[in-house]
Write a structure and sequence with these properties.
homodimer; 121 residues; mainly alpha; two-stranded antiparallel ribbon; 7 helices; 3 strands; DNA-binding
Chain lengths: 121, 121
DNA sequence: CATAATTTCCGCGAACTGCGTACTTATACT
DNA sequence: AGTATAAGTACGCAGTTCGCGGAAATTATG
């Protein structure tokens, strides 16, 4: 965990001491993070991300391994405003219409063997 | 800190108990996170981000958007299969049809003053 | 080599986590 | 209303972990 830290620091040619100083923590503390011996508090973690001008997710190695994919039907279960059209969020109704629209087209085109899926819970 | 948690959970209409169960922790533990009384370990934090399909940075309040917002018309410029319906990527044609579909409905509903925008480059 | 700089290891005290439990508040039902 | 069930909050304990200083080990530099 946090194995990205070492690289981030070395890329900047900082010593652990310098880095710790900038973070306001003891060098042994910071060293513990790099080695995996210790984990930082959430506050320290945020400060570290700020210092290296990166994200907490990157430091944690949560690299968006898979490019973010969005299943449209999930947008109906948990409404949010992630999809925009002409800068305006898609309403739930619009998404519902869209799902029905595409499904019907797909069904017309090909395999009737695969029925549409009920999106209700 | 972590004040986004409550919203993420409520949007899914989960109780604290249900959420804690999914995370494999005690409900009082999870409740402590929402109230700010306790902070999760980095491991729990990652699990929480996974459960809510968001980023650690968002949970920590380090970023405004829960997820990247996607402008549908941009998908036509740079096709990338990010949108799935029933697990199957939306084709360019499907997106084109959808854009036209929603735009026409939006125009019907309200201001005719704003014509649809040409999606071609 | 010798010396300095950097990194890693260690032990301690303080602080925090995670849990169960108990308590308060909200919701549902008759 | 009154009661029962669920939901959310607060608290104390046991065990773990943090953060630190200082010492060992490793690496860089002359």
């Amino acid at each position: 965990m946090l194995e990205n830290l070492s690289e981030l620091r070395k890329k900047r040619k900082w010593s652990q001491q310098e880095t710790a100083d900038q973070l306001g923590i003891a060098k042994s503390t910071y060293a513990g993070y790099e080695s995996g011996y210790r984990e930082p508090s959430l506050q320290s973690l945020s400060q570290i991300a700020d210092l290296f001008e990166t994200t907490v997710d990157f430091i944690l190695g949560r690299t968006n391994e898979e490019q973010d994919q969005i299943e449209v039907t999930n947008l109906l279960k948990y409404p949010d405003s992630r999809l925009l059209l002409d800068g305006k969020p898609l309403s739930e109704d619009e998404i519902v219409d869209f799902v029905a629209f595409v499904r019907s087209k797909r069904m017309l085109r090909a395999d009737v063997s695969k029925p549409s899926i009920d999106t209700r819970e």
